[in-house]
Amino acid sequence: MRIRSKWNLKDRERTLAETGGAMAFILWRIAQQGVLNLENEGFQTDTNSQRLDVMGEFLGFLVHVTDRMTAEWLEQDERQEFISSLAMHLSSSMQENRTDAEGKGDYRQSLIDLLNKRAADYSEFLFTDNEPGYAFRRCFGDCIRAVMGEKDNQWITDQVMDIETPEALSPLNKAIRDLFSEASA
């Protein structure tokens, strides 16, 4: 998966809120690709709403991993500003997409609630050398399995743990490296 993770105007200093917005766009693309990969492997999704549920789980995982990866560079208040901006941008994207799929409603808060729940769930697991541990990946796979269709449901956790997680982490690592190296330059 190719992503754009460099700023157009390199000489301008970026705020954490701007970086959060750029990262939100990238995470959204990674989550979309994750859903597409699962469907291409024959795993069942029946509706756009269900696809957005799967994307929500991907986003919960990716936001938490992003927070863990950036924790060593950012002070607590900076971290909070960055992750809050990231979550707000993602919730706006979810709002637009859920409105298209399900009609008018307030869908922002449900994504924020999911991100907070997954942050609490995933905080219990090991994260070493910018990699989620086995239990972390298993929990992510189980969360995806819970919102996927019934066809081949027993294999989804393994697919997510062994294939989708590494595929998602590769562009995520690049994006964090690019966005934060340019911000600190």
**Main β sheet profile:** 2 strands, antiparallel
The radius of gyration computed from the alpha-carbon positions, rounded to a whole number of angstroms, is: 16 Å
**Average pLDDT, to the nearest integer?**
89
Number of strands: 2
Give the tally of structural domains: 1
Count of helices? 6
User: Shape from CA axes?
Assistant: globular
Distance between the termini: 26 Å
Strand order of the largest sheet: 1-2
Order of helices and strands: HHHHEEHH
Detail the poorly predicted runs.
none
Strand content is: under 5%
- Percent helix, as a range, is over 70%
Structural class, judged by helices and strands?
mainly alpha
Description of the structure:
With 185 residues, this protein is mainly α. The protein has one domain (16-184). The protein has 6 helices and 2 strands. The chain has helices spanning 16-40, 48-70, 76-102, 108-122, 134-147, 156-184; strands at residues 127-128, 131-132. Strands 1-2 form a two-stranded antiparallel sheet. α2 (48-70) packs antiparallel against α5 (134-147). The longest helix is centred in the last third of the chain and has 29 residues, at 156-184. The two termini are 26 Å apart.
